[in-house]
Amino acid sequence: MKVYDAHIHFLFKCSFSSLQGNFAYLRKIDVAGFDALIIPEYPAVLKTVRQMVPEEYHNEVDLDILCRQRDSIQIVKQVKDLTIIPFLDARYIETDIEQKFKMYHDQGFKGLKLLYVPEEDMVSKFAGMENAFGRSLLKSEKITSLMVDCASHYGMPVLIHIDLSRYAEFTEELLKNHPLINFNIAHFGFSRRKIAPLLDRYPNCYTDMAALVTYISQNPSSYLDFVKCYQDRILFGSDSLIGVPETVLKTSRFVIDWLDDMGLAEKILYKNYLTFHKQQIPEKIKW
């Protein structure tokens, strides 16, 4: 069964030539395409960089790694036989937002990735924007809103990491103000209870299951009720690093084993992704 992954971070320690092997691996495990989350600019201070990265990934992110992937938009354009949609990971952008969005859109970025952690997050272990940039909650709201305005202007879908247990009201404002672009609220918004009414009210609201396999495995029946209810709005996401593509295989095989007997795996693994990106779904896909 073919797979489209809505959540792959384009971070890698290997050389460009070795990265070709990772693309070949993805093809081999039936990945047809993915959203590539690329960080084109970042602070010069490593401490600040890591304040906007979960603690468990600190060893995967340093200035050399970020420098290596900085121009990944050019790599993506050269890849054959994989449909890769480059997303602008804008977690470190604070100034000249409108000018930068035009520049990055002109370079070929097709989507926007937002990490909205305005305050310290003790669960996911982010220091957050307040500590990293000295920003108030209100300023972070204004900057994020402006970024979404720009994404909407260019017709770019938005993938946003946001904890709905803390920021559901702000999320709803974004959905309401931008009905013409689709939003992927990653990780089930960290709250199925909070994301359910947003999925009910806003047809441009989607979510992904990135980084949730461990939690689903602990309580599959509870998660299955949620998936059945919102089966047309859930995207497959592995939360993998492009440098560690094995995570994609592990996550996709879990979904197939869990959902295929109920006829839900096709929707989660590729049909919803194509709908999210406003692409036509073939009546019968021939692989």
Helix/strand/pairing class, anyone?
Answer: alpha/beta
H and E order:
EHEHHHEHEHHEHEHEHHEEHH
Radius of gyration: 18 Å
> What is the CATH C-level name?
Alpha Beta
Quote the average pLDDT.
Answer: 95
Low-confidence stretches: none
Q: Give me the count of strands.
A: 9
Number of helices: 13
Indicate the CATH architecture.
Alpha-Beta Barrel
Helix content: 40-55%
CATH topology: TIM Barrel
The largest sheet, given as strand count, sense and whether it forms a barrel, is: 9 strands, parallel
Between the first and last Cα atoms, what is the distance in angstroms? Answer: 8 Å
Fraction of residues in β-strands: 5-15%
The outline comes out as globular
Q: Could you give a short description of this structure?
A:
The chain has 287 residues and is of the alpha/beta class. The chain has helices spanning 16-28, 46-50, 63-69, 72-78, 97-107, 128-133, 137-153, 164-177, 192-201, 213-218, 220-229, 246-259, 265-276, and strands at 3-9, 31-38, 83-89, 111-115, 158-161, 183-185, 205-208, 234-235, 240-241.
